[in-house]
Amino acid sequence: xxxxxxEPFKIKSVERIPILTRDERAARLKAAxxxxxxxxxxxxxxxxxxxxGTGAMxxxxxxxxxxxxxxxxGARSFQRLAETVHDVFGFEHFVPTHQGRAAENVLxxxxxxxxxxxxxxxxxxxxxxxxEAAGGAAMELVIEEGVDPTSHHPFKGNIDVExxxxxxxxxxxxxxxxAVITITNNTGGGQPVSLANLRAAKGVLSDRGVPLYLxxxxxxxxxxxxxEREPGxxxxxxxxxxxxxxxxxxxxxxxxKKDGLANIGGLLATRDEALFERVKQRLIRTEGFPxxxxxxxxxxxxxxxxxREALDERYLRYRVGxxxxxxxxxxxxxxxxxxxxxxHAVYVDAARFLPHIARDExxxxxxxxxxxxxxxxxxxxxxxxxxxxxxxxxGETHWPGLELVRLAVxxxxxxxxxxxxxxxTVIELYGRRDGVRGLRMTYAPEVLRHFTARFEPVxxx
Length: 461
Ligand code: F0G
Fold this sequence. Notes:
Shape: globular
Largest sheet: 5 strands, mixed
Radius of gyration: 22 Å
CATH topology of the largest domain: Aspartate Aminotransferase, domain 2
CATH class of the largest domain: Alpha Beta
Strand content: 5-15%
Bound molecules: ligand F0G
Number of strands: 16
Number of domains: 2
Oligomer: single chain
Helix content: 25-40%
Strand order of the largest sheet: 2-8-7-6-5
């Protein structure tokens, strides 16, 4: 049999893709204030805004939906999810939540107090926001290679273990109630963390009595990279690697909208029984009874099946292979991207794509809006709009290190020919990049401005 990695599924139900004319897209973009978050999905041809909750469920998941037990307490759906959480992650104490950030919003107020510091490789935005809301600060300790878009380090999501030890010795462990390592590191490009690194970090933390929590949203993709790249793991099954990874954790949060292959859902698990009691109390106040946690029984069943399906090695080879295929086509076309591609998305380096656009004219936003205009492709800016911070005293903007655009690939949704279309659109635009103009921000909300900011092109129109 040929080694060719094709989509390991047949398509049983389809959704029509909208195709607008360029004039229609130009009008929609203008009405959206040149912010793709304001576009309606009916105006988008290929939607690469996020890989979160946008995946396609399998026939087994849809059948599980029909088995959903909607009892308020002790539903069979919960029992099935508990079996999965035990089998896949090796945890007894967990609660479902409606999504990942809800798990964070239960965990951090119970563990973090004002003035605390939380060591991380790099936190996702909502993780950082929830730590800050509890009065703490997330410290980024990702290895140097992790912030270099040209480095080919195999585990660019690794935490710098020496800096971790130095930080803990410096601030004292009373101010560090837990550490959080994100697998894979979304903020840094969907980059994996090795088991050797997790083990070393765990050693430093447990010597000092600091629990290790994982943000395990993309645990299956991380395990795939470990199997592929970490010495000694080539013959270990994904299921075993996930087990070994989670065995190092004292707890985890997870958004089932990623490797849970579900459209909604999340988990919070811990080995700390005293904390678990407080988790359940807080959950009852904010999410719901501990056996449903803000979800319908059918959602628990969809998650229970999806979390097992994500460990399928053929699926993961196709999944990571798809991202790699898109990255490969872009590199062949000369397009600058973050190397090597991660598990769920290709990150285009907008600063190198549009060097003629100044930082304060938002090259990333200009690239994201141009990809919509040219091909109806929707993606997000991760650069000056999302992470630029205005100093309240001087009024000056502090720009983040990188100016990127993320093409996130939803799971089991688009075929290789859709990705060819995306690659053609990006490469064609790259050929005409000198004609792309910058943007001026006409409305800027104070926080999380990428969601609602508005823009207009710098000249003309
Ligand atoms: N942690 C990571 C690493 C994430 O990527 C996300 C979400 C969350 C936590 C929060 O989970 O959305 O279920 O509340 N990431 C999405 C994205 C939104 O587009 O990358 P959630």
